[in-house]
Specification:
The protein has a single domain (3-182), classed as Rossmann fold, CATH 3.40.50. Strands 3-2-4-5-1-6-7 form a seven-stranded mixed β-sheet, sandwiched between helices. The chain is an alpha/beta fold. The longest helix has 21 residues, at 102-122. The protein has helices at 15-26, 41-53, 67-73, 86-97, 102-122, 143-162, 177-182, and strands spanning 3-9, 30-34, 59-62, 80-84, 126-132, 165-170, 173-176. A hairpin with a 2-residue loop joins strand 6 and strand 7.
């Protein structure tokens, strides 16, 4: 069974940098799994900047959805999977299934998280998974925003329940959530 480390936090809280540091400290072959899709020029520039910042030895797999299936289909010899991020994964699924209604969206996201958890259970690797914590801010003023917040919150809770370690990043500082639970 793989080890799951969940990294949560707000926008620009240092989640990705912390996750990348953990992966580098552990050593071994890293497969960086990117869920971002370049929908516009600004996002394309962000993706290019992130790619350029990663260590050259790391392999990258771009999978906006179907993450577990894409990983299974890859031929990468991997010690560490760094998935960045569940936030965009849930957003991609929400937008892809929006016309089908709330129940279909929920099923698609549940299936994606279940497939990811199943992959973690059978692959002997470290999994570092990044996601935004969106439930601590303002309530979105429109239905799609509220649905997104709720869906991502449920996905994060499922991942956190399985995680061996979970961190909340605030202003670049990591709080060890699992350790706090035992104190």
């Amino acid at each position: 069974m793989g080890q799951l480390i969940l990294i949560l936090g707000g926008a620009r809280s240092g989640k990705s940098a912390y996750a990348e540091r953990l992966a580098q400290e552990r050593g071994g072959a890293v497969l960086f799994v990117a869920t971002a899709a370049a929908g516009d020029e600004e996002m394309a520039q962000r993706i290019a900047a992130h790619r350029a910042d990663r260590p050259a030895a790391w392999q990258t797999l771009e999978a906006p959805t179907g993450v577990a299936a894409a990983i299974a289909a890859s031929d990468a010899a991997t010690d560490i999977f760094l998935l960045d991020c569940v936030t965009l994964l849930v957003s991609n699924l929400l937008l892809a299934h929006e016309a089908a209604g709330d129940a279909a969206i929920g099923r698609a996201i549940d299936a994606e998280i279940e497939a990811l958890l199943a992959a973690i259970a059978v692959m002997e690797a470290t999994w570092i998974v990044v996601s935004n914590e969106v439930g601590m801010g303002l309530v979105p003023p429109y239905p799609l925003g509220r649905a997104y917040r709720d869906l991502l919150g449920r996905a994060n809770a499922r991942l956190a329940a399985r995680a061996d370690r979970a961190y909340l990043l605030v202003a670049g500082l990591a709080l060890d959530l699992k350790r706090l639970m035992t104190e």
